[in-house]
Every structure is written in structure tokens, then in C-alpha cells.
Amino acid sequence: MGNRLSKIYTKTGDSGTTGLGDGSRISKTSLRISAIGEVDELNCNLGLLLNHELREDMRLLILDIQHDLFDLGGELSIPQSQFIEENAVRKLENAIDLYNEELPALKEFILPGGSPTASAAHLCRAVCRRVERVVLHSEPGEPINPNLISYLNRLSDFLFVVARIVSRDSGVGEVMWQRK
Predict the structure, then answer these.
(1) pLDDT tens column, 7-22
(2) How do the domains of the chain map onto residue ranges?
């Protein structure tokens, strides 16, 4: 990376604008910047999830996902770019299929909770759903890479399956919704 971040503060954002990857500047209140911020929040939550007890294969995949999210944020910060490819979506689908084979079929809805690790995975899932909504609203009229939306949709599904796996592995079990 060299001297790329040699100076942390630049004062260029003091007027309420921020720079995009293509060199242009836009308002910090723009929908695009909100979407980039939501992706960053999801990545931070995944970092917290990694501080919990996880199987090594899940840990490595979540770390890889964090790298994907940096690419995804980069795609949002450079108009007209596409960094998230179909193979990233397939990677998540393969992981979902593999992990879901270990689990019993669902007959009821699951409440977020169970073990601390499962709760952290559910929080990541909920944040991911918000990211998806915000990204879809980020730039009206500007095309969005369909792989990017598919990736976020699969990522929330993956995080749901992770929550189920870690609930089972912890011995705490899942908290099932009970209709009143």
C-alpha cells in the first residue's frame, strides 16, 4: 500500500462532501455514501462475530466475506464499476448448501438469540438485510450490478445458517417463535 494512507486527516470533508473512488466529490448525506457506510457497519459486525467461538471453516469464510465487502464498498464508491462477480455469489450458495445439510428442516420461525455467537450472527444477518435495502435505494436511475444484490441476499441467508449451526454446536439450541 505504500504511502497511500500516510495522512489520516485531509480536511477535504470539512465542507460536508467526501471523495469517491473516481475522484469526484459528493455530499456525505447522499444515498450512495449511506450505502457505503452500511456496508462498513456490516463488515464491522462481522469482525465482532469473528471474536466469538466459530468453527475454523466458518471463520475463514467470514474473513473472506469481509474482503468481498471491501470490494463491494469499492464498487459503490466508483460509479459504473463492477467488482462483485457471479463466482462470489456461488461461493455463498455452496456454503449455504453445505452447512444447511447438517441442520434439521425448519418447522417454525426462529427468534434471534440462543448463544452469544448465534445472537451475533443474527445481528449480522439483520444488518445485511438493511444494507441490501439501502443499496437498492442508493442511486435512483443508476444501474446496480445484479451480482452485488444477489451477493447481499445470499450473505444474509448464509448468516442465518451460521446462526443455526452455532446454536446447535453450542448446545444452547435455537429459540423457536411461539404464536400467542
Answers:
(1) 777 776 777 888 888 8
(2) 24-173
Quickly list DSSP for the chain.
-TTTTS-S--STTTTSEEE-TTS-EEETTSHHHHHHHHHHHHHHHHHHHTTS---HHHHHHHHHHHHHHHHHHHHHHSTT-----HHHHHHHHHHHHHHHTTSPPPSS-EES-SSHHHHHHHHHHHHHHHHHHHHHHSSTTS---HHHHHHHHHHHHHHHHHHHHHHHHHTS--EE----
CA–CA gap between residue 49 and residue 44 (Å, rounded): 9
| DSSP collapsed to 3 states, 82-118 | CCCCHHHHHHHHHHHHHHHCCCCCCCCCEECCCCHHH
pLDDT digits (tens, 9 = 90+) for 55-76: 999 999 999 999 999 999 999 9
Q: Which CATH superfamily is domain 24-173 in?
A: Cobalamin adenosyltransferase-like (1.20.1200.10)
| Entry pTM | 0.91
